[in-house]
Amino acid sequence: MREIVHIQAGQCGNQIGAKFWEVISDEHGIDPTGSYNGDCDLQLERISVYYNDVADNKYVPRAILVDLEPGTMDSVRSGPFGQLFRPDNFVFGKYCIYLQISSPGT
């Protein structure tokens, strides 16, 4: 079985990503708190592709949300599915990871 880590970066990426998690959660029967409330076994068939099962019928997105400013993260957290994410899913501000790609000779 495959597992996908969803990476959302910047304001646009996080706004689109937040909507993505609303849609995918609805498809899999996951409510805004991460609990399974579906009505069909088919909804759970491939749930481990995008979610980690952290407790009995409790799921957390396998996602990393990155931004230089905390404003977008605050809006995601206060949004309808903000409780779905763990606090360590959010990387912003001074904790942002910077990658420097150097070419030969520099």
TrEMBL record:
Signal peptide: none annotated. InterPro entries: Beta-tubulin_BS, Beta_tubulin, Tubulin, Tubulin/FtsZ_GTPase_sf, Tubulin_FtsZ_GTPase. GO terms for cellular component: microtubule. Keywords: Cytoplasm, Cytoskeleton, GTP-binding, Microtubule, Nucleotide-binding. The keyword Zinc-finger does not apply. The keyword GTP-binding applies. Residues 3-94 form the Tubulin/FtsZ GTPase domain. It is found in: Cytoplasm, Cytoskeleton. Pfam families: Tubulin. GO terms for biological process: microtubule-based process. GO terms for molecular function: GTP binding; GTPase activity; structural constituent of cytoskeleton. PROSITE patterns: TUBULIN_B_AUTOREG (PS00228). Gene3D superfamilies: Tubulin/FtsZ, GTPase domain. PANTHER family: OS01G0282866 PROTEIN, TUBULIN BETA-4B CHAIN. Belongs to the tubulin family. This is Tubulin beta chain-like. It comes from Erpetoichthys calabaricus.
